[in-house]
Amino acid sequence: MTTEKFEMPKGFSVDAYFQSGFKRGESSYPIELKFSPKIAPFIRDRQWYSGEEKEMLADGSVRLKFTVPTLYEVIQFTLKYGGDVEVLNPRLLRRLVAEEAAKITAIYKS
């Protein structure tokens, strides 16, 4: 326990701060993911991020677009859907997910 006092900044809103399920940061990354027809209904029927956009595609897949301040949690979010999701943008996220997938593949090849 500490005797140090904290004063909430004027205009600060806890709800607005935690509006996103993803961590806060100073950067802004526009994300674009494409989910397979297999899991498209699950993705389509849930809100993942405030301000997100979803587009149902002719092949039954769904494109999900949103903006986040950091990429770490989006990498984890993407990896949990394995081959049923493709990172379309940004290129950096696509590369980071590919690197993690390669590490996983290396573990299970032995």
Summarize the structure.
The protein is an alpha+beta fold. The chain has helices at 14-17, 40-44, 72-79, 91-109, and strands spanning 29-35, 53-56, 62-68, 85-89.
Description:
- This protein is of the alpha+beta class.
- 33% of the residues lie in helices and 21% in strands.
- It has four helices and four strands.
- A four-stranded antiparallel beta sheet has the order 2-3-1-4.
Q: Class by helix and strand content?
A: alpha+beta
End-to-end gap: 49 Å
**Model regions low in confidence, pLDDT < 50 over at least 5 residues:** none
Give the overall pLDDT as a whole number: 88
CATH architecture: 2-Layer Sandwich
What order do the strands of the largest sheet run in, or round the barrel if closed?
Answer: 2-3-1-4
Number of helices: 4
- Secondary-structure element series: HEHEEHEH
Radius of gyration: 17 Å
What are the SSEs and their pairings?
Layout: H1 14-17, E1 29-35, H2 40-44, E2 53-56, E3 62-68, H3 72-79, E4 85-89, H4 91-109
Antiparallel strand pairs: 1-3, 1-4, 2-3
Helix pairs in contact: 3-4
Name the descriptors:
single chain, alpha+beta, 110 residues, extended, Alpha-Beta Plaits
